[in-house]
Amino acid sequence: MDFHALLGKIRDHSRELGFTGFGVAEAALGEDQAHLRDWLAHGLHGQMDYMARHGEMRSRPELLQPGTVSVISVRMDYGTDPGQAWQTLHDSERAYVARYALGRDYHKLMRRRLQRLADFIAGETGGFGYRVLVDSAPALERALARNAGLGWIGKHTCLIDKDEGSWFFLGEIYTDLPLPRSALKPQGHCGTCTRCIDVCPTAAIVAPNRLDARRCISYLTIEHQGSIPEEFRAAIGNRIFGCDDCQLVCPWNKFAKIHAEPDFAARHRLDEAGLLELFAWSEEEFLQRTEGSAIRRTGYVNWLRNIAVALGNAAPSEANRAALAERCGHPDPVVREHARWALDRLDAALSG
């Protein structure tokens, strides 16, 4: 089989499917495996125990999909207006949701399209061994994408392309096809810039390319279960699901393109909704309005927990106080605790 010709066909079809970046990497991840082991050994993964359980599988693709010799890596843009993002962050009465989670869950959309790409390959080859991944199995996707020529890993640990920025999703196909590899991985272009490190509200980027998840707002508002440590609550501001600050300040994102994917458009006005509006959602409303959304991952209790913290950082209005007072009677102790903390904070601001 002419694998160079096949690669060209796969690349062309990936563009037809809406992928904005394409490359092929080998399965070896030796240096990244050592970096992962060190990160886990220092406990920087917090409560994400699955990171430790799947450590070797994450850095050795052939353990996840036997026979893997090549990894097809793709990306899909989700960039939005950074001005609107900053406006929301600076308005303490509005809720900030990470830009990737405003619309439809990207996992399902990209997985379907990657499966279509795999079906296309099978049609060309007569069948092959593969596995489609979109953050759905242990994989060092950014390292694989870097090795596939899609960008370099910035100091904030996100992948950056000098012509496209960093507002994109990644997906992979592990395959037993010996496809030609992409050109050498791009060199980093962060230079002496430390904007991402300096802007982090909780100082979670403890060194270039080293993130302490236990301090990260994305981790605290999505992955972390139970009470959010008080030392981070004020710094969370109005961020109720994830955080984009390190990407918003990255100079390379001035080249990022606004996405054209209808499924990524904001649902239920989540790009401009007020905290009180979202805090009033019942569990039934939460489940209905987050159907097909990445936000469903956090769960209703943590949704209320996160918004309570944001209200504690908002203006001490009577409306905010009344909403928090009502949630102080919530059946879940985590919600009650955070609502009480927020109410005490507003009362302190009023009395001061």
UniProtKB/TrEMBL annotation:
What is catalyzed by this enzyme? epoxyqueuosine(34) in tRNA + AH2 = queuosine(34) in tRNA + A + H2O
Q: Which cofactor does it need?
A: [4Fe-4S] cluster; cob(II)alamin
Sequence ranges assigned to domain 4Fe-4S ferredoxin-type in this UniProt record: 180-210
Name the Pfam families on file: Fer4_16, QueG_DUF1730
Note on cofactor = Binds 2 [4Fe-4S] clusters per monomer.
The entry describes its oligomerization and partners as: Monomer.
Tell me where it resides: Cytoplasm
**Record-annotated residues binding [4Fe-4S] cluster 2?**
C200, C216, C243, C246
Q: Which Gene3D superfamilies match?
A: 3.30.70.20
User: Mind telling me what this protein is named?
Assistant: Epoxyqueuosine reductase
